[in-house]
Write a structure and sequence with these properties.
CATH superfamily of the largest domain: Trigger factor, C-terminal domain
CATH topology of the largest domain: Trigger factor, domain 2
Oligomer: single chain
Order of helices and strands: EEHHEEEHEEEHEEHHHHHHHHEHH
Largest sheet: 5 strands, antiparallel
Number of strands: 11
Mean pLDDT: 82
């Protein structure tokens, strides 16, 4: 039998159907759809004409194969395509005409269908509840600016300097000690034979960290410049060449240099090595860095203030199917008995999350808030700058995982909604000290009700598996130079 690729039908004239809406319990509705058999037959005939032009059957001239023969060979596939097309378009039209916003995927129940028959089916759909958005201007938010004094800035710079160790040669004849740097050449053998990785030139290790081979630092403690040292150590279990793992190796080391650490001088040269113009410029950069850390954390606190207050807005009813979906998200990886035991708590948490999501989504729609492609790309570029050397990994991640891009879109969408709400709310701006900021953040953390709102508010019908980290944690800000050490973390919610 010859196969024929049937061309997709053109869009149907959607005056062909009759729809009856039946309200069921709560937000559930049944839409009964009727399409008469003459309409179906007309589309079937249209398809047969197209197939007739395409197919070549033995014994018949091109385009002259009888309809009955075509029907025997291709009737089922042609009807299947016509039915699928009619169902898709009439379902969409029925839902749109009745101004229904489905909360989840509608279900279709075919009642009557087949060639020569009327098409009758029922669309079972749960619609989104009505959300009451009002009194945004009555929302109160505390917005903080943290004043960073010079002592705090100098303290941070000293911490950076402490981690930027400088080493100077020890006096001739002076032995190595813990925290000294030892430079050496080595040759190693196993059972008298050389092995891969058993030779090194000008290898440098800081004694006391045991980062080379376990036991190596101990053997090199007490050595002097130009000294030769022979000893045995056991190669680690994770040695790159598995055949040598856990075997004893004999090392012959020639000590090239022994250096001690000295305190780093904090001056203009130190600042320039970190990418600043001079020491004053470094102080400015570090001060801004510290301020940004607290600002990001306090912005998250401000966001939680908004979310807590919008929870008071009225939502008529939470759809059961959304609750079930959210519970599945909350309980991922949990054992069945644990889920069963805490079912009510999970359902309560699910309702809270969904309610806030619905409110945010409703506000976003009401204010025509959208996320544009350039905003997504800008956020990806920001992430690339924060992960130098891993740009390809990050790009591959987003290219190969569409859900990651959807999650990012959701995060941006939520942030834009929150910012829009904050712009309409009553904002109380305060300048506070670092100590006051830490107290506020600590209190917020201790009294947190644990909301982790889904980032994909823009796609409330399509729930994400989990909120993204960016939605629940403040991002770390960095000074302009990537050389400047990461600042110490502050309390976060």
């Amino acid at each position: 039998m010859q196969t024929v690729k049937v061309r997709v039908l053109s869009r149907l004239p959607l005056n062909i159907m009759k729809v009856t809406v039946e309200n069921k319990k709560g937000l559930n509705k049944d839409l009964k759809v009727f399409v008469d058999k003459k309409t179906i037959e007309s589309y079937m005939n249209e398809k047969y004409k197209e197939v007739q032009k395409q197919v070549v059957l033995k014994g018949f001239r091109p385009g002259k194969a009888p309809k009955e023969i075509l029907k025997r060979q291709f009737g089922k596939s042609i009807y299947g395509e016509v039915l699928d097309k009619v169902l898709k378009e009439t379902t969409t039209k029925a839902i749109q005409d009745n101004k229904i916003k489905p909360a989840g995927q509608p279900k279709i129940d075919l009642k009557s269908y087949g060639e020569g028959k009327d098409l009758e089916y029922v669309i079972s759909v749960t619609e989104f509840p009505k959300v009451e958005i009002k009194s945004i201007e009555n929302i109160k938010i505390d917005e903080y600016t943290v004043k960073i004094d010079s002592n705090e800035t100098d303290k941070r710079i000293k911490e950076i300097a402490k981690n930027q160790k400088n080493f100077v040669p020890k006096k001739d004849g002076e032995s190595s000690a813990l925290e000294d740097l030892v430079a050496f050449d080595y040759n190693a053998t196993i059972d008298g034979k050389s092995f891969t990785g058993g030779e090194g030139k000008n290898t440098q290790i800081v004694l006391g960290k045991d980062l080379f081979i376990k036991g190596f630092d101990k053997e090199l403690t007490g050595v002097k410049k130009n000294e030769n040292k022979i000893f045995e150590v056991t190669l680690p279990q994770n040695y790159p060449q598995k055949e040598y793992a856990n075997k004893k190796a004999k090392f012959e080391c020639k000590i090239l240099e022994v250096k001690k650490s000295v305190e780093t001088k904090i001056d203009d040269n130190f600042a320039k090595n970190l990418g600043a113009k001079d020491l004053n410029d470094l102080r400015t950069l570090i001060s801004k860095q510290i301020n940004d850390e607290y600002k990001n954390s306090l912005d998250m606190y401000s966001k939680q203030q908004v979310l807590k207050q919008i929870e008071k807005f009225k939502v008529d009813e939470i759809p059961e199917n959304l609750i079930d979906q959210e519970v599945n998200i909350l309980t991922q990886g949990m054992k069945d008995d644990e889920i069963k035991k805490n079912k009510k708590d999970f359902e309560k948490k699910a309702k809270e999350r969904i309610k806030v999501g619905l409110i945010l989504n409703a506000f976003g729609e009401e204010n025509n808030i959208q996320v544009h492609e350039n905003e997504i790309q800008a956020e990806i570029q920001k992430q690339l700058k924060m992960m130098p050397g891993q740009e390809k990994i990050v790009m591959d991640y987003y290219q190969k995982n569409p859900s990651a891009t959807d999650s990012l879109r959701g995060t941006i969408y939520e942030d834009k909604i929150i910012q829009s709400i904050k712009s309409k709310a009553k904002v109380n701006k305060k300048e506070i000290s670092k100590e006051e900021a830490e107290k506020i953040l600590k209190s917020a953390h201790e009294h947190s009700h644990g909301h982790k709102h889904n980032d994909s508010q823009e796609q409330a019908k399509k729930k994400e598996t989990s909120p993204t980290k960016k939605s629940t944690q403040a991002k770390k800000a960095k000074p302009s130079s990537k050389k400047i050490a990461k600042a110490k973390k502050v309390s976060k919610k």
